[in-house]
Design goal:
Structural class: alpha+beta
InterPro entries: Cupredoxin
Number of helices: 2
Region (Disordered): 21-80
Shape: globular
Biased composition (Low complexity): 21-46, 54-63
CATH topology of the largest domain: Immunoglobulin-like
Distance between the termini: 19 Å
Helix content: 10-25%
CATH superfamily of the largest domain: Cupredoxins -  blue copper proteins
CATH architecture of the largest domain: Sandwich
Strand content: 25-35%
Length: 152
């Protein structure tokens, strides 16, 4: 949810800066371009947010991922600790693998889609393969934290 808010704020800032840039081309006074650029929140919204005009999230996935044995190198890793996930989510290709791991020793109860929870704790990682495009919400039953895996 916060990534949507940040993306919307970034889009609004880009539009505002674009409009102020158009005004400064027509005006010869430097005062006309300085008043719109006093927005200090622009730098706050750009960390880690892609500059795209599309702010809608992918549709929820129509199928659950598949729990797999250690497949080797994953496409993404989401790490849990006592306060939740280290990232808000991950973006992977169709058929991609996400590894769930714990840095605090766990245990964490990971729920993906409608699947039953699996335990992730120190030394016990779990991997899911995501075969269908869409947006998958992942939650931790212990901390209540959530993350989103986007499959494109």
């Amino acid at each position: 949810m916060t990534s949507r808010t940040a993306a919307a704020l970034l889009t609004a800032t880009v539009l505002l800066l674009g409009a102020s840039g158009c005004g400064s081309d027509d005006a010869t006074e430097s005062g006309s371009s300085s008043s719109p650029s006093s927005d200090t929140s622009a730098g706050e919204s750009t960390d880690g947010v892609e500059a795209t005009e599309e702010t809608s999230a992918p549709a929820p996935a129509s199928a659950d991922p598949v729990l797999v044995d250690d497949p080797g190198t994953p496409d993404a890793t989401l790490t849990l600790d006592d306060v939740g996930f280290d990232l808000e989510g991950a973006s992977i290709p169709v058929g991609g693998i996400v590894r769930f791991t714990s840095t605090d020793g766990g245990p964490h109860g990971i729920v993906v889609g409608t699947l039953s929870s699996v335990t992730v704790m120190g030394g016990l990682d779990e991997w899911y393969r995501f075969d269908e495009p869409g947006s998958y919400v992942v939650s931790d039953e212990i901390t209540g934290a959530t993350a989103t895996v986007v499959v494109e």
